[in-house]
Amino acid sequence: MVKASHNTFSYANPLQWWLRPFAFVARCQCKTLTEQVEAGVRVFDLRIRQDKNGEWIIAHNAFVYMKGLDTIERKLGWLDGKARGGGYVIRVRVLHEVRNQRQARQSSSVAFNSLCDWMQHKYHHILFFGGQRTMDWRQDYVFPTVGDIDYIERHASVRWPKWLHWWPWLYARLHNEEIEREYQDKPDVVFIDFV
After folding, report:
1. Phi and psi dihedrals of 192, rounded to 5?
2. What is the CATH number of domain 2-192?
3. What is the pTM of this model?
4. Which of 6, 36, 83, 177 is the least buried, fewest Cβ under 10 Å from its Cβ?
């Protein structure tokens, strides 16, 4: 099993103070990026869009975890260094985290495509894939170096009924060991919560 972290950057506290009491509904990871690599994660989930000021943010639905192109650069630069110097094969799924028409107007596909092009050319040791817009899963960008890869989603938001999506930590606690046993000798890339 190639371990993949669903919503990789949701370990951070939301930047919006008023959403912090509800962070548990969107938090899918509790380990930092470094801790995720140490836990064997080799595939990461980067969900980005522009805010109303045109600044790039790392988000999951309404929750904004990190802000600024410089932050994205630091995170990807660190992963690129791990791939280059650590002998790891690092993959990053990049999704255009646009959930409604208002967000789609703020964060254009053209800007997303430019950012994906830039990432692809700057971080040579990372294999990028994805490029979909989360609102409707339309393909906004195709990463030419690797195309898309087959992966399995085994986390609460795709495996549990809608009303239980609010409890990703509970799903992970109940199912992660079983998932790891099921896929341990298989080459599948498996996205899970709380690696």
Report:
1. -135, 160
2. 3.20.20.190
3. 0.93
4. 177
